[in-house]
Amino acid sequence: MLKRSLILVLVFVFILNLGVSAKEVELKSGTIIFVETTSMLDPDQLQVGDNVSLIVSSDVLVNNTVVIEAGSPVIATVTSSKESGLIGMAGKLGLNISSVEAVDGTYVALSGSKMVEGKDSTVASAGLSLLICPLFALMKGEDAKIPANTRIEARVISTYQINI
Questions:
Q1: What are residue 161's DSSP bridge partners?
Q2: β partners of residue 4
């Protein structure tokens, strides 16, 4: 009797699940997604080609349905990394945002970038070293760092069907 009841319950649950189908929503090309850095990014510690950790700033919604959750990891790559140098040379740091994972596991290609440059003081350093003291040639340019929690805009590259 117990075995028969268990089979009936399983059949009933199976029939109920047939009526419930996955909802599919369309994440359109051009949708804006805000991402942010999780830590300070410093060209002294990064090289071109390194991957860096970013996260989605807030839920991405389509028709009031979450398709990408806030906090989802975002893949980004360092495209430019130059430490500040002597004679007032400024530092540079650039990132390219490439993808994020949607709630159904779909990898969504993104387009976005961030480039920062420190203040260049080459002219001042060279001029002062020639006019006043050669030690001014040792003056460094400004560092280019991207602080933690820096918000960056990215866009979805193509249209995706996301299963909810």
A1: 26
A2: none
**pLDDT tens, N- to C-terminus, the chain (164 residues):** 555 654 544 555 555 454 444 689 999 999 999 999 999 998 889 999 999 989 999 999 999 999 999 999 999 999 988 765 444 456 789 999 999 999 999 999 999 999 987 655 444 444 444 445 444 444 455 577 889 999 999 999 999 999 98
Tell me the fold of 23-163: Lipocalin (2.40.128)
Domain extent listing, the chain: 23-163
Predicted TM-score (pTM) of this structure: 0.70
**Count of residues for the chain?**
164
Number of C-beta neighbours around residue 90 at 10 A: 20
Neighbours of 145 (CB within 10 A): 18
